[in-house]
Amino acid sequence: MCGDLGGNTVARSASIEGGGGGMDGQHSRRTFLNVATAALTVGAAAVALPGTASASPARRRVPLEKISIQLYSLRSLLQNDPEGTLSALADIGYRKVELAGTYGRTATEFRAILDRCHLEASSTHVGIDGDLNQAIADAKVLGNRSIVVPYANFGTIAEWEAFAGRMNTAATAFKKAGLKLGYHNHDHEFAPIGGVVPYDVLTAKTDKRLVHLEIDLFWAVNGGADPVELFRRNYPRVTQYHVKDRTADGQMVDPGAGAIDFPRIFAASCHTIREFIVEHDQPADPLNTAKVGFEYLRTVRF
């Protein structure tokens, strides 16, 4: 669902669980594809100047409760002052964060800081080749609803296929614990190996009912992929976005300061995205990036 300018919600034709059998499922999927195809015609390129004119007035917005930030962006501050940093994020307006470690604190200690700052850690980045039981236990303490694999890289398609199998095994264990498993991309997943694209292997070989996709929009564009096409091809598995911007010459910048056409992407996909997560891998001023990103997502219309 996406918010309109009045703060209400606009129901979309296809839900995150949609695409099922029967006439209703078929009609819902046809309706979604028609909507997404129409949105695709607004801008054919994955990278365009922000504010490109659209075919209809921009009325939708990102609901405030769906705005989050990946704490990796603030790692330089969190190591020494987690409470002050998280309190500053709450003052900016954030109510959700995505974790990438607990910075020398136990899960219990970090959860207490989150609670004092009135922040929810809805998801966390964790690998699946370690102790799954410990990952599950920590996620439960932290209040996570999902666990996202932050990085994987292999030199052969056979290794990517084997990794997909491990993802399915882990996802089954996480589901039993009430958690969802996702995968976060970089750009190398879109570089063919022997003519085969690893991202296609990963999405084909993982169970779409168990493994969702967190698309990092900077890295997807950097790898030559069109985020709207990725969303359409993998519907309804894409439920999280990492919102980081890219200049035309490939520099990473704060959201809204580059050339990625976020309104085009959001217009085509906002009905199944549950988190829009601000991120910058190497910010010069982490808290300023956090503020700029929040304000961009709060004010962007599509």
Q: How would you describe what is shown here?
A:
This is Sugar phosphate isomerase. One of its GO terms (molecular function) is isomerase activity. InterPro entries: IolE/XylAMocC-like, TAT_signal, Xyl_isomerase-like_sf, Xyl_isomerase-like_TIM-brl. The protein contains 11 helices and 13 strands. The chain has helices spanning 22-40, 75-78, 82-92, 107-116, 132-142, 157-176, 198-205, 217-222, 227-233, 262-269, 286-299, and strands at residues 2-4, 9-10, 60-61, 67-69, 96-99, 120-125, 146-149, 180-184, 211-216, 238-243, 245-246, 252-253, 275-278. An 8-stranded parallel beta sheet has the order 4-13-10-9-8-7-6-5. Strand 11 (245-246) and strand 12 (252-253) form a beta hairpin.
Low-confidence sequence ranges: 6-55
Q: What's the shape?
A: globular
Strand order of the largest sheet: 4-13-10-9-8-7-6-5
Number of strands: 13
Order of helices and strands: EEHEEHHEHEHEHEHEHHEEEHEH
**Major sheet: size, sense and barrel closure?**
8 strands, parallel
**What is the CA-based Rg, rounded?**
19 Å
Q: How much helical structure, as a percent, in the residues?
A: 25-40%
Helix/strand/pairing category: alpha/beta
**Terminus-to-terminus distance:** 13 Å
What percent of residues are in strands?
A: 15-25%
Overall mean pLDDT stands at 87
Count of alpha and pi helical runs: 11
Layout: helices, strands, pairs:
Layout: E1 2-4, E2 9-10, H1 22-40, E3 60-61, E4 67-69, H2 75-78, H3 82-92, E5 96-99, H4 107-116, E6 120-125, H5 132-142, E7 146-149, H6 157-176, E8 180-184, H7 198-205, E9 211-216, H8 217-222, H9 227-233, E10 238-243, E11 245-246, E12 252-253, H10 262-269, E13 275-278, H11 286-299
Parallel strand pairs: 4-13, 5-6, 6-7, 7-8, 8-9, 9-10, 10-13
Antiparallel strand pairs: 1-2, 1-3, 11-12
